[in-house]
């Protein structure tokens, strides 16, 4: 596309997509290493397209966790998209439902931040849709190409390479770029502390605990300083 806002959205997503690609590569390898077939892993990365939820669910799938635990974990990890959708509503609420559903499928954390930085005033304006698609196209292609590569090359990657740690570093880099307020920093620190303190819980329920406490703290801090 030649629209100036499309090109701007794509350009501003080009730098952070490198971290997304590293995360996608690790996720692709992790899906196969966790016991999924290549076909299952490819279907998961193409249809789910939610890296944090994928990584959180893989140990549960490998451990044979009950379905309700798997669904609850994925739901909690993706709760942030409810907030994203509410923030995007003034911009895209007038669009047809089918178009909005497609836009939500390709939505991402960094694209959300970039979009609100570009359009801080919550109202529909010319160029917003083009900017959004420019950003999400780069994000989606970067993630999927790296994730598919990880799936296809997983058997050739030795486990002792420590790709899990590389994934953690990629996530930390992305998270740090999003913490531009003191409230967000406190929420992140508390979430990390709770996750470590409850690490002994089975079925990775420490993740659910960390999300619940962080969400409650963020809501309380926002109300206090709002």
Number of folding domains? 2
Net shape: globular
Uncertain residue segments: none
The residue-averaged pLDDT reads 85
How many strand segments?
Answer: 0
* Overall radius of gyration: 18 Å
Range of helix content: over 70%
What oligomeric state do the depicted chains represent? Answer: single chain
What structural category characterises the helix and strand content?
A: mainly alpha
Series of H and E elements: HHHHHHHHHHHH
Tell me the fraction of residues in β-strands, as a range: under 5%
Q: What is the end-to-end distance? A: 40 Å
Main sheet record: none
Number of helices: 12
Question: What characteristics describe this protein?
Answer:
mainly alpha; 12 helices
Structure description:
The chain is mainly α and 226 residues long. It folds into two domains: 4-163, no CATH class; 179-226. 77% of the residues lie in helices and 0% in strands. The chain is built from twelve helices and no strands. The protein has helices at 4-14, 17-33, 38-47, 51-63, 67-77, 80-92, 97-105, 109-118, 128-153, 163-178, 182-197, 205-225. The radius of gyration is 18 Å and the shape is globular. The mean pLDDT is 85.
């Amino acid at each position: 596309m030649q629209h100036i806002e499309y090109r701007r959205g794509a350009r501003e997503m080009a730098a952070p997509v490198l971290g997304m690609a590293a995360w996608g590569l690790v996720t692709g390898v992790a899906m196969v290493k966790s016991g999924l077939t290549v076909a299952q892993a490819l279907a998961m990365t193409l249809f789910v397209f939610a890296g944090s939820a994928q990584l959180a669910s893989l140990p549960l799938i490998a451990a044979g966790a009950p379905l309700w635990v798997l669904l609850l974990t994925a739901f909690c990890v993706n709760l942030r998209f409810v907030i994203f959708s509410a923030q995007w509503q003034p911009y895209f609420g007038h669009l047809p439902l089918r178009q909005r559903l497609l836009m939500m499928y390709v939505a991402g954390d960094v694209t959300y931040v970039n979009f609100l930085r570009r359009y801080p005033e919550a109202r529909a304006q010319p160029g917003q849709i083009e900017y959004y698609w420019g950003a999400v196209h780069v994000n989606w292609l970067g993630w999927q190409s790296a994730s598919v590569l990880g799936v296809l090359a997983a058997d050739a990657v030795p486990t002792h390479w420590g790709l899990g740690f590389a994934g953690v570093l990629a996530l930390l880099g992305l998270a740090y770029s999003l913490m531009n307020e003191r409230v967000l920093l406190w929420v992140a620190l508390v979430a990390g502390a709770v996750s470590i303190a409850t690490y002994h819980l089975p079925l990775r329920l420490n993740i659910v605990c960390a999300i619940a406490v962080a969400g409650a703290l963020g809501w309380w801090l926002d109300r206090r300083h709002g």
